[in-house]
Design brief:
mainly beta
C-alpha cells in the first residue's frame, strides 16, 4: 500500500526564502518546483517566519514528545511532537519555522539542525529494495500477472539519507489494493556514464491484489519510500546514479509491456 494524495492535499512544495538580512538567503529544498515567496498565506506575521508543507523526511530520533527528522538537505528538531512515530519512519512533514528565534540564530550550522514546530506528519510506507528474491521484477520481458500500469513519475521524487521517496501517477480501472515494488538485479553489470560511473536500472512495478476487498476509493497518485542502503553501500565514489524503469502500457494483445524510463538521477551519497 502507498500513501495517496489528490491535488488539493499537495499545496506546498519547496521554497527559497530571502530574509531581511543582507548576507543570508535561507533555502529549503523539497519536492517539485521552487517558489520564491514574496507575499501570501505561507508567510506569518514576520518575514522570518514560514509554514512549510509536504516535505519528505525520515525520523532519526523519536523520544517522549520530541523528534529529530532528517530532511533532504537539513535536519529539523521539534521539542513538542504528539505524533506516534518510531526511528526510521518516513513521512511528509508540515512544520512552522521561525528563522528569527534564538534557537535558529546560527541557521543550524553549529547545532546541525533547525528548530521547528511540527504541524502534521503523514506517514509514507517504507519498503525494502528487492534484489535476487524478485528477479522476475527486473526482467522486462516478463508480464507480471495483475500489473498496474504507471502513467508517470513526478519530479518531486528525492533521496533523503538512504531512503528514496517516489511519487507515481496511475490510471485506475478498479479500487483493488496495490503493492509497490522497486527492484534491481545485483548480478547485472550496469552501463557506465561518461565519467565511468555505473548507472543502475531500478524497476518500479505495481501489482494489484486480485481477490482482496475493493477500497472505498481508487486514488491515482501514490507516495512510497524505498530503502536504497544496500545499493548505496555497493556504490563506489561519492555519487549514486540511477533511472527508474516502469510499465507504461501494453502491446495490443497484452503479451508485452512498453517500458518507459525516467531521466538519470544523480545523488551525492558521501
Amino acid at each position: 500500500m502507498g500513501l495517496f494524495y489528490n491535488e488539493e492535499s499537495l499545496p506546498l512544495c519547496s521554497y527559497i526564502i530571502k530574509m531581511k538580512t543582507k548576507r543570508e538567503t535561507k533555502q529549503l529544498f523539497g519536492m517539485g518546483v521552487v517558489f520564491v515567496l514574496l507575499l501570501g498565506s505561507c508567510l506569518a506575521e514576520s518575514s522570518q517566519k514560514l509554514r512549510v508543507g509536504n516535505q519528505p523526511g525520515v525520523v532519526e530520533t523519536a523520544s517522549n514528545d520530541s523528534v529529530f527528522i532528517h530532511m533532504r538537505d537539513y535536519k529539523v528538531y521539534a521539542s513538542k511532537f504528539s505524533g506516534n512515530v518510531e526511528n526510521g519512519d518516513c513521512g511528509l512533514v508540515n512544520f512552522d519555522i521561525d528563522f528569527g528565534s534564538p534557537e535558529n540564530a546560527d541557521s543550524g550550522k553549529i547545532k546541525g539542525f533547525r528548530t521547528v514546530s511540527v504541524i502534521k506528519f503523514d506517514t509514507v510506507p517504507r519498503h525494502t529494495l528487492l534484489t535476487a528474491a524478485a528477479l522476475e521484477l527486473t526482467d522486462s520481458s516478463i508480464v507480471v500477472p495483475n500489473e498496474q500500469l504507471v502513467s508517470s513519475l513526478e519530479q518531486r521524487n528525492t533521496l533523503v539519507g538512504d531512503v528514496y521517496f517516489l511519487f507515481s501517477v496511475h490510471s485506475r480501472q478498479d479500487s483493488l489494493p496495490l503493492h509497490f515494488n522497486l527492484s534491481y538485479n545485483p548480478d547485472y553489470a550496469p552501463p557506465r556514464n561518461e565519467q565511468n560511473q555505473p548507472v543502475y536500472d531500478l524497476f518500479y512495478r505495481v501489482i494489484k491484489e486480485v481477490g482482496a476487498s475493493p477500497q472505498p476509493t481508487a486514488p491515482t497518485k501514490y507516495y512510497n519510500a524505498f530503502d536504497l542502503k544496500q545499493l548505496i553501500d555497493a556504490t563506489q565514489g561519492d555519487s549514486l546514479f540511477f533511472r527508474i524503469r516502469y510499465a507504461r502500457s501494453y502491446n495490443k494483445d497484452t503479451t508485452q509491456i512498453n517500458w518507459a524510463s525516467s531521466d538519470v538521477y544523480r545523488y551525492g551519497i558521501k
